[in-house]
Predict the structure.
Amino acid sequence: MEPPQPGRSRRAIWISATLALVVLLAGGGFAAWKLEWFSGNGDSVSFGKNQPPAAKETGGQGAGTPQTPAKPTGDPDVQLPTGPKADFKQFAKLDDGTIIAKTRLAGPKSGFEGDVWVWAPKEYDDPKYAKSGFPVLISLPGGNGYPTNYWADRSLGLQKAISEGVKAGTSLPYIVIMPVLNPDAKYYYDGSDIPGQPKMGTWIAEDIPDFTRANFRTYKSRDGWAFMGSSSGAFVGMKTLLQYPERFKAVIASGGELVPDSPLWKGHQAEMDANNPEKLAKKLIEKNGPEVYINFQVGTKETGKDAMLKFQQQYGKGPVKTTIRDIQNGEHNGWHYVRGMKEGSLEWISKVLKAPKPENG
């Protein structure tokens, strides 16, 4: 066996050492980057540092009533936080320094207790917006939506897409509210008050908006309230919009289901019909309003567009305004739905909702 040549050996050692240093530095850089992502997680978070003083509060979230009501100034549609404040903890940090926070909410109207994640854009703490309301985007996940809401995962990029859209002038700066969708992982509950089951319809339609008004500067009118959701979350957002058009104005429904399909509806046909978007749309058309806006998103690599087209043909008339956005090469997942939002759906919904107004704007 030929003995190793000293020159080659030294060169190999030098190359190995160099590679090791590069890997170490790269790994250290990644570790520091990842540490920055999660630094401060679990710490208390406060939103609206520059907002006018809120009402005095008593008790915790869901308890007590405001004393000495706060008085909105300027736009009479602005509603200042009513309190009581929730106990927010940092869940994740975005590259722009904004925070996704998490809290626990005991819904006083539904009786259901679950987790809620929230995010506010940089503009929310900008002093020039201190007296302005902000539009709200209630974001609902697919699947069972329990025990987490995957829109709170920063890797999907929902919040980043909104921030980039604000800079580009194609999106409003939304407050994003991300509640759990179901009470457990056993069944689909269709975001509804199924007899004998947890009142998930009341949780989504009443407790979550009340919670948002308690903690953020919002709008009193429906012009500042919308949903976005994927799959089962798209169904719930669309269904709730059609049930309560006086409270909500629009929805981005991605890869959505269009009819209730929970096995828990068995024996409750009338209640199921009351949560069926097709029947709800028909009633809204017969009443001639108020107008609602439904933007379907569907990937070209997934099924479901035929059902959307059928709904649009039958019910996309009068006060029910519908559009369908194709996501080229899109599949049934959150990353592709966020891409569709960046490609046009955020701009679409931003045109029908109310923008925050700077004090001197």
Summary: The longest strand covers residues 99-106. Residues 1-25, 29-35, 54-70 have pLDDT under 50 and may be disordered.
